[in-house]
Amino acid sequence: MAARLARFLLVLELATYGPGYAGAAKMKVVEEPNTFGLNNPFLPQTSRLQPKREPSPVSGPVHLFRLSGKCFSLVESTYKYEFCPFHNVTQHEQTFRWNAYSGILGIWHEWEIANNTFRGMWMRDGDSCHSRSRQSKVELTCGKSNRLAHVSEPSTCVYALTFETPLVCHPHSLLVYPALPMALQQRWDQVEQDLADELITPQGHEKLLRALFEDAGYLKTPEESESAQQEGGVQGPVFETLESCNKAHKELSKEIKRLRSVLTQHGIPYSSPSETSSSEHLGSKTPTDRTAEQLPGNTGLLGNTL
Ligand SMILES: *[C@@H]1O[C@H](CO)[C@@H](O)[C@H](O)[C@H]1NC(C)=O
Ligand SMILES: *[C@@H]1O[C@H](CO)[C@@H](O)[C@H](O)[C@H]1NC(C)=O
């Protein structure tokens, strides 16, 4: 793989650490001498790129914030790819043709978090691609210098980039917990305690952590996205058939019963809205919501829809 890359790739070194470097906003791209169409004054490459929205605010591990405002590029066969952390991913066709393609492959949106680790940066809402938007996931891996090491397109209009940086070489550098403000760490502690005490289910645990990561700004709430607005702000699952809805309802009712018995076992009082109303008006609320709402330290997470 490395040998293949070495043969193929021309990595553009960027003057990001140059002597004149004063702050995060300044960026200087040094082009290689043979730039094909790129330095052609009759090709206003960048002016053609119309971002659909502003990037999300910079978030995540503080030691990565210094990458904001910089850009790193990679030439692979006839394309030059450019990754600007916390901003965008773009693609520029290297050709003499007057209509060389330039496009936005994603705008900084949110982190991917798995196993309590920052797994990648999602850049979404790029140029249209059939009925969807191009999007890119950038994985950060340990390397001797900052460089865009690899680009591929694992599925149509979804790009996978590998960015190497010394900033993620420490084994704790991408852990989520240490990146959180203390108040959110304490909230996380409580969620773990509640799980250990079986006051919440693994699903409830996952949901509370997701809400916590959203509050930290690492993940974006789906409600904010266009598709949710198009559905008129409908919350909760949408069922395709009455049968599947009934089935889900039955499962939720069973879960409520189980959670009630857990509460009773632990001698925790709960206000019980009349049996019939709670089981007939479940709507988008899940039993874990109901339980979590009555626990200390979890207020404010679940909105005031209950
Ligand atoms: C991409 O990000 C860079 C660096 O922040 C910025 O200078 C450039 O204008 C952005 N490009 C687009 C098309 O938004
Ligand atoms: C999850 O993270 C821990 C510590 O960071 C690591 O030891 C473990 O191997 C990871 N598990 C998976 C499935 O990635």
How would you characterize the overall build of this protein?
The protein is globular and about 75 Å long. The model is unreliable at 1-41, 227-235 and 275-306 (pLDDT under 50). The protein has seven helices and eleven strands. It is of the alpha+beta class. Among the domains are: 48-175, Mannose-6-phosphate receptor binding domain (Cation-dependent Mannose-6-phosphate Receptor, Chain A); 180-223, no CATH class. It binds 2-acetamido-2-deoxy-beta-D-glucopyranose (NAG) (2 copies). Pfam families: PRKCSH.
Q: What is the CATH superfamily of one domain?
A: Mannose-6-phosphate receptor binding domain
Low-confidence regions: 1-41, 227-235, 275-306
CATH architecture of one domain: Distorted Sandwich
Reported for the largest beta sheet, the result is:
9 strands, mixed
Structural class: alpha+beta
Percent of residues in β-strands? 15-25%
- Arithmetic mean of pLDDT: 77
Overall helicity: 25-40%
Number of strands: 11
* Ligand identities: 2-acetamido-2-deoxy-beta-D-glucopyranose
| Separation, N- and C-terminal Cα atoms | 54 Å
In the sheet with the most strands, the strands line up as 1-2-3-4-5-6-9-11-10
Rg of Cα set: 24 Å
Shape: globular
Count the helices. How many?
A: 7
* SSE topology string: HEEEEEEEEEEEHHHHHH
What fold name stands as the CATH topology of one domain? Cation-dependent Mannose-6-phosphate Receptor, Chain A
CATH class placement of one domain:
Mainly Beta
Topology (SSEs and partners):
Blueprint: H1 2-8, E1 10-12, E2 72-76, E3 79-84, E4 88-93, E5 102-114, E6 117-124, E7 128-129, E8 132-133, E9 135-142, E10 147-155, E11 158-165, H2 182-196, H3 202-215, H4 226-230, H5 242-265, H6 275-280, H7 287-293
This protein binds 2-acetamido-2-deoxy-beta-D-glucopyranose (NAG) (2 copies).
